[in-house]
Amino acid sequence: MGRQAAQSGGPQTKEKRYMAQIPNTRALTASTDGSDAGTVFNVNTATKQVQIPNGASIQFYSDAYATATGQLTGSGPVSAMSATSPDPGAGGTIATAGVGVALVTPAAARTGIILQAGTVNGQEVWVVNQGAAANTLTFHTTPATSNVADSATEPAIAGLKARKYVWVSAVSLWYPAQ
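The chain above was modelled as a monomer; its predicted structure follows.
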């Protein structure tokens, strides 16, 4: 495809560039050793696929390779897990920013808990209570405070249990996936 002639005084249309105009099963490949066994990335224009073979995965970061935020593997997406498992304390907040799995280890049963507001509509987070079975987490009963829909009737999260929540930006609340 060549350049089109500029119309009098009009903008010039740039040439479109195409990769592998002829279907190619190895249009762009990255390998650790140059062999099929070492291939970790391939663009196959014959099947119109980006391929991640040999157990390789795609890792996402929120900064210059310091904070992992998620991973895509052959078995599906893997959420980033919080680096620590704090005791939120009574009326404390469980952090959700940048994680898909929020670990907490309450030293005793805790009430008045707040789930930090989500950052993206549709964000999902698992709250994992690593405390003893009796060390439950009960959300603040006011949804506007706890950020959890119907928090007054939301059952406590027992120790050694986990619960998934989905953030809905339109109402600024987490909804339990039960």
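DSSP finds one helix and 13 strands in the chain.
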